[in-house]
From TrEMBL:
GO terms for cellular component: membrane. The keyword Transmembrane applies. It is found in: Membrane. Pfam families: ABC2_membrane. It is a multi-pass membrane protein. This is ABC-2 type transport system permease protein. GO terms for molecular function: ABC-type transporter activity. Residues 11-200 form the ABC-2 type transporter transmembrane domain. Keywords: Membrane, Transmembrane, Transmembrane helix. The chain crosses the membrane at residues 30-48, 54-73, 104-125, 137-160, 172-193, 222-241. It comes from the Bacteria.
Amino acid sequence: METIIPKTSTVFSALLRADLTTQWRNRRGAILSLMVPVIILISWKGYIPKIGGPATLANSLCYGLISLGLMGYSNSIARDRDKGIFQRLRVAPLPSWAIMMSRLAVQLIMILIITTGIFIVGFNVDKITLSPAGYLVTYFTAAVGGAVYLALGQAIVGLTKNAETVNSASRLVFLAFILIGTFGGLGALGPQIQEITHWTPYGTVETIMAAGMAPAKWDMDATNALLVTLGYIIVFATVGIKQFKWESK
């Protein structure tokens, strides 16, 4: 009897539906990723007159993307690897890249949801409005910014086999970004630290998102920040892909 091998697109669609179902069942983590930037946005209301609405939205959204990439994605990948889920998926009739693309597609949907949630809260609570172009460009810059933290999460998982160690490492990096954004980015640690912070993954992502919310003010600094951000994605993704092991043992 001839063995019928299903099309890659068919298997990928089934895998994507399964990953979406899993994400829905674990929606508490998704809600947490959304609540983090919302709480920060509301608490930073006093900064709006000082740094402007777009910058306030951008900083808040940064925290949501960091939470999604480091606390959500990296830990879910580490747990599934520890449970042997990836080993079982690899015997399925689909290429290995499709397994990860399905996970990343779900995360992209989450980025769009978090971004939309920030827009809604910003409008209803802080009365921050953007131009139609600002909303559109911000979705793009949020996707690019989210890719940085997803790639960083992938690098952490690639360099660390144990799920508990991945959890600890991601929490440590998350805390570092929180401190960078809260103190370094706002100039509380001096102008030199603020300049260094500007070119960290947090700083470049915040820069392109703030500029994307006001496209008319996009300048060379934002363009350079975008190029540096793309460089971070390439470096982190290369490390994460090359070092990734499909099993924890």
